[in-house]
Amino acid sequence: MIYGYIRVSTDKQTVENQRYEIIKYARKEKLKIDEWIEETISGTIAPDKRNLGKLIQKARKGDIIICTELSRLGRNMFMIMSILNTMMEREVKIFTIKEGYKLGDDLTSKVLAFAFSISAEIERSLISQRTREALKRKKAEGIKLGRPKGTKSAYYKLSEYKDVIEELLCLGIPKTTIIKLFNVSSQTLYTFLKREKLF
Predict the structure, then answer these.
(1) pLDDT in tens for each of the 199 residues of the chain?
(2) Virtual CA dihedral for 169, 171, 177, 179, nearest 10 degrees?
(3) Distance in angstroms (rounded) separating the CA atoms of residues 47 and 68
(4) Secondary structure element (H or E) that encloses residue 40, with its range
(5) Which residue, 132, 123, 142, is CA-closest to 183?
């Protein structure tokens, strides 16, 4: 199967430009698009909450996914590298038009996969470092990171970090890591996620 994957961030953007680029590329490469996957959603949303996640699940060995550029897969390096790594492990090929990548099971792809994994590791380290620095800065500003006295709800402890936690989840950071970063119990985190509907 050959899939054409199109993603736009808002309904004000058109999918037609990407469709045209993919069709033109497919003709040049003598390929036929068997199925189109389109969505209007931010690239910061985790793949499993997008049509892309469904595509990743159903793609099989030898299948090809064509997109106009890597940024269509996600908005940050770690997410893109994670998706590419999953696809390469399943021997699903990813072709990108703008970058000219043909990621498959050849030697070049394996070298790129190694580079991707290193890049992803660096990104994970930077995220962890930035998070620690942000928490340290909050403490320096006099903001208490622990549960406010007299409260029993987990919501109050993590509510001011909702944006940070949401970003970490979108990046695919494990919940166990988030628990350690914020020094909370698993129950505290899961209660917070449930209340904020971040599951």
Answers:
(1) 999 999 988 765 678 889 999 999 999 999 999 999 999 988 888 888 899 999 999 999 999 999 998 889 887 777 887 788 788 888 899 999 988 888 876 666 666 666 665 665 666 666 667 777 777 777 777 766 555 555 445 446 677 778 778 777 776 777 887 787 777 888 888 888 888 887 6
(2) -20
(3) 17
(4) strand 35-40
(5) 132
The CA distance from 130 to 123, in Å, is 10
Q: How far apart are CA 148 and CA 55, in angstroms?
A: 44
**Which residue is associated with the tokens 């590791």?**
121
**pTM (predicted TM-score):** 0.57
3-state secondary structure of 15: coil
